[in-house]
């Protein structure tokens, strides 16, 4: 075994892994564009297309010259400064750009360390908002089954409590209100949506005096199963929030910045949230950074309530390096015809994964924007499937019953075709 991998197995605890029975690891020697250079275990290297965009964030690829230069320029000035009592241009310019590209009512930006923290902040903000309005009893969130919002405590409480990754913590988490998962499919079945709407309406009515906000991933539930649902369901949730005085919090950490075919997935439904959380692709994958945006009503109500402030403030809030590269990443995205790019990738994935339809053990094949999914009829053998796809020059990280891809936007048609073929062939040999 490579000495570094031996030390890794002894020392490092990887995501959702066992220390006593560690998962197989592959040593990265370098990365450029859409490709990873991996140690092949025999003293050489093997190249693979990163079909995961490093967990959905590396949309412009590795070693992007524009993003590299943004970091170099900023580090020559200063790399970090506390955000309490001090500010700086990268944070100001980033906030300005985020307000420009997000739904119009969102006017105020809170910068966070990670996507999970942005959900924490959003929930705290919603609770403070209801207290400021005199609704101290509104301490619960309304959400739907199948969601995933992060690994810290408040986000865990709004993740699916049964089939999610946090069922071990049941009893220790805040008890939220869960409605049924929206009917499957972007186009949706009108009768199924109507029945779902009636159930959600009854639930909201029954718990109206307890609920502070609705929290959902719009259009596409990510780590909860790459599950797509109709924009009409979002419109129903917006109406319920307005009817009962809830806030609507949209988690666009995975779906933001063009991934589903619109800049933000809420645009599919033509609705605006009261609070929006973004992350992952925000910095083009270079550094950890997220943001929570809210309306003026929310910001001013909380600011005039008890405490007179949003009660949160991370040490690394507004890190200048992260803000500088995030601004460069957004501008790089806007300078490109990103809608055409995402549409091209969507078409390529649909074509490339078409061969998986009808294969033994395949339950469903679906594409939403630049997201391609092959859902199996049972759990994936992750090490075996990962290796099978890697032999075909593509890196994926399956989970649950899914083999899926969220490729970088800079992927060529040939690379998208290779991703589709590699997944299809690997699934076919299981």
Mean pLDDT: 96
Poorly predicted runs = none
Which structural category do the helix and sheet elements fall into?
alpha/beta
| Amount of helix | 25-40%
Order of helices and strands: HEEEHHHEHEHEHEEEHEEEHHHEEHEEH
In spatial order, strands of the major sheet run 4-12-11-10-7-5-6
| Shape estimate | globular
Main location: cytoplasm
Keywords: Aminotransferase, Biotin biosynthesis, Cytoplasm, Pyridoxal phosphate, S-adenosyl-L-methionine, Transferase
Function: Catalyzes the transfer of the alpha-amino group from S-adenosyl-L-methionine (SAM) to 7-keto-8-aminopelargonic acid (KAPA) to form 7,8-diaminopelargonic acid (DAPA). It is the only aminotransferase known to utilize SAM as an amino donor.
Subcellular location: Cytoplasm
Describe the structure.
The protein is an alpha/beta fold. It has 13 helices and 16 strands. It has helices spanning 3-11, 53-56, 65-75, 89-101, 115-132, 153-157, 190-206, 231-244, 296-303, 320-335, 338-353, 382-390, 413-428; strands at 28-32, 35-39, 45-50, 106-112, 140-144, 177-179, 211-216, 220-221, 227-228, 247-251, 275-278, 290-295, 362-368, 371-376, 394-395, 402-405. The longest helix is centred in the first third of the chain and has 18 residues, at 115-132. The mean pLDDT is 96. It catalyses: (8S)-8-amino-7-oxononanoate + S-adenosyl-L-methionine = S-adenosyl-4-methylsulfanyl-2-oxobutanoate + (7R,8S)-7,8-diammoniononanoate.
